[in-house]
Write a structure and sequence with these properties.
single chain, about 150 residues, mainly alpha, rbstp2171, three-stranded antiparallel sheet, 3 strands, disordered N terminus
Length: about 150
Amino acid sequence: MKKTGTELLESINPYYADVPEVQQAAALLPADYRPIDADWVERNQEAVALLKKAFDSKGGIHLLSVDDYAVIARAPSREILNRGAKEAGQVDRIEADFKFVSQCMLYPSPALLAGWMNEHAGVASAFASKLLELSKANQEAQAKKL
């Protein structure tokens, strides 16, 4: 089913609305959220390929899931990490995690994540932890005495 102009605008994360591949992928992705699994990825392979193309040189895209909740997100850039660090002290932890994840989400929209948080407040924090791991921001360094 082809999306209306309003549905298309609502499905594009505003952080990436000017990225042509994201616009093209958003037009192909389902307007109504369905849990993202291997079958979903197969059915939407054209849109997934567009997202991969847009973010391949920027850490790629990843499927993150917590129970029945799943999102497609890009690896966080230095800019996103810096913005998150600046905002961390200004808002509560859950709100900071929501903003951080929202900046990385490609599908579904951050508005849907906000709805999920009404049911399970920590879902954004779980996604945020995995995104930080992907960026190596919380990876422990190894030391060896020379």
